[in-house]
Amino acid sequence: MNINTDRTARLIEVFSAIQGEGLNVGTRQIFIRFAICDLRCSYCDSAHTWVASDECRVEMTPGLRDFAMHPNPVDTDTLLAWVERQNVPGLHDSISLTGGEPLLHAPFLKQFLPQVRLATGLPIYLETGGHRPAQLQTILPYLDSVGMDIKLPSVSGEEHWEEHAKFLQACVRSQVEVFIKIIVSQQTDTADLERAAQLVAAVSPEIPVFLQPVTPLDSESHPNKELILAPTPAQVLDWQAQMKRALKSVRAIPQTHKMLNQL
Ligand code: SF4
User: Which parts of the sequence bind S-adenosyl-L-methionine (predicted)?
Assistant: First the structure.
C-alpha cells in the first residue's frame, strides 16, 4: 500500500472545531487529520489513526458533523475543495494539520500547503510528535506555527530526545512560531521533566511549554491496556515550579476540547 506519494495522502477526517490544546486553545480551526502514526504512546487517544484506513470522513458543513465518507487515498485537488468548502468567511483562525503523524505525509504536504495557503489565506498550524526533523525541513517554509511534543519515556513509552532537539532547533532557525506540549501522568519521572526543560532551555528559554495532564483512558478499550492516571494537583504544581527554574513560560492546561465535547 503506497501511503506517501506527493499527490495523495490517507486521511482520517476533515472537520471544523475548537482547538483544545496548547497556544491556539479556544481558536476555531479547520482540522485535517492524517492517517498513520509511527509512534505508540501509551496514552494515545487517537489509536484509530495508527493504520492506513481505506476511507475518511469529511464534514459537509462547518461544525454540523454531517460527515460523508470518501475513499482513501485523497489527492491534493480533492482536499483543497473540501477545505475551501469549510472556509466560511471570517469563521476560522487557522488550519490544523494533525493525526496520526502529519509529517509521514511530507511529500504530499509540500505540494498541498502552498495551494491551500493561496486559496484560503489561513495560517497553517502543524501538530506533531516532534520526532521527524528531516520531514519537517521539507515543509517548514509553508508553516506558520508548530506545536511539537516532547515524549517523556516514563509516560509515553517513547524516547526521542535527540530528534526532539534537532526538531526544535530547526523550528527556531526558521522563525516559525513554536511551542512544546508535554503529556504528564502520575507515572511521570521528574528526571524526564528536568531533561525536557534543559533541552528546551538549550535552544531558547523563551519557548512556551505546556504541561498537559493526561486525560485518563479506559484501560480495557485502549490497545496497550494500561491504566493511565492523571497526575495529582500537588504533582502538577511541583513540576511547573521545577520547570520554571529553567524556562520562562510553563503553563498547565488539560485537553479543553474534551470538556467542550469537541472531536
Ligand atoms: S504521536 Fe500522537 S497519534 Fe501517535 S501514538 Fe503518540 S499520541 Fe498517538
Answer: 43-45, 100
